[in-house]
Amino acid sequence: MPTDQSGHATAAAGERFAVLDPATGEAFDEAPAQRPDELDAVVWRAHEAWRGWRSDAVARSKALLTAADAVEAAGADLAPLLTREQGKPLAESYAEVARTAARLRYFAELVPGTRRITDGRPVHSEVRWRPLGPTAAIVPWNFPLQLASAKFAPALAAGNTVVLKPSPLTPLATRLLGSVVAGALPEDVLTVVTGQEPLGARLASHPGIRHVTFTGSVPTGRAVAEGAAASLARITLELGGNDAAVLLDDVDVERIAERLFWAAFRNCGQVCMAVKRVYAPARLYSRVVEALAQHARSVVVGAGLDPGSRLGPVNNAAQLARVERCVDQAVSAGARTVAGGHRLDRPGYFFAPTILADVPPACPVVTEEQFGPVLPVLPYGNLDEAVEAANGTGFGLGGSVWGTDLDRAEAVAGRLECGTAWINHHAELSLAQPFAGIKDSGVGVAGGPWGFYGNLRPFVVHRPGAA
Ligand code: NAD
């Protein structure tokens, strides 16, 4: 591949890259690799389009509602394509399409308020809200459509134009979504660009971009922040998580086991806010381990397009290797594999749903984000130790507390250092609530009016009061 002056690989005209089906490990299609000059043109056209788009909130709202209908109508095309490149069961792809449409509708109804400030002085200050400008939305491969819409729906509703870059592992459904949504909008208001790195780095540091809203891993988030520093664009970073579930001693193990299992294994564990560690009281430990292992052993694993598959493959070979490494390190350090623990003997990136017991707490499967179908279960002696362990990683996305006495569970939930703490479930979000990780899990807020205002800046008009 040719390189540019900085040594970055550049795509030649018409160059394309392969997209793999994780259920087979084979290429099934291609996507275009955008050249730097093409990216440049897209960003500057987004700048031009911004002039019109920012000026009419009523037209914006109407266009976004039309886009939501179009997304729903395209579900039968979008969902199978998403499953093919991402791996998830088809029903989950349909759910992702539905949430994308729901997001467009939710944000279409939000209008920035204007507020008059009176503070006793003979002046009026009026706070209005203005969009930031062309926005770069960069998203990962685990929920390509849902995470893309979590960025472009509020950004567009607020009057910004958007350049959206999906992961090169899942570009196709996003390209299709982009054309469906863009069909309801003026030209160049939303554009999808695809390609391998350094396309994302170029987009994040582009001088024409005023806001970079990124979801992905912590190291890439840091690189994005450094890139955006060049133009001092606003950054919103939704990064990794290592959420703990703390089970209390009054928990009804058999009643919650299935819900807890799916909170960890949905989308093959490739969820930023999945349960990634379970802390169980020593007295209940073996029951918790066995109840989770029973679900892990019985769940149907298969290609996402096969009816009946509840868990698909891991999305890509590098992620599969990472999951395998995490398990092997834990087992070498003395952990017990109670279910799974190995790749499946078939083509594609399949890993058996795995429950690990007696895991030394310093193992990477506990301290880092495994992002796969593997769950370590750790015993605790007293609750303070469990809370300290739950809070003891660099992440702070979510956490949950499980028990019968809800007031007690809520008191423990209040001690978790994270953005969202759930009681007796995990990872459920409403469109209307804020979502914000702390520590290494992120910067800024997504979701609800808070996320909407993250796409706006205050503009103040200050004038003398009436005589
Ligand atoms: P990643 O960080 O490797 O990639 C994310 C996106 O950034 C991709 O589009 C990628 O092409 C792009 N990218 C890569 N290098 C870049 C650079 N230097 N500059 C700009 N963009 C660049 O993440 P991934 O492996 O695709 O996704 C998994 C990660 O995403 C996990 O850590 C997971 O926890 C996280 N995630 C977080 C949330 C959240 O809301 N907090 C949600 C989903 C996933």
Automatic annotation (TrEMBL):
Keywords: Oxidoreductase
Xref: InterPro entries: Ald_DH/histidinol_DH, Ald_DH_C, Ald_DH_CS_CYS, Ald_DH_CS_GLU, Ald_DH_N, Aldehyde_DH_dom, LUC3-like
Pfam family, one: Aldedh
Domain of life of the source: Bacteria
Active site: 238
Homology family: Belongs to the aldehyde dehydrogenase family.
Protein name: Aldehyde dehydrogenase
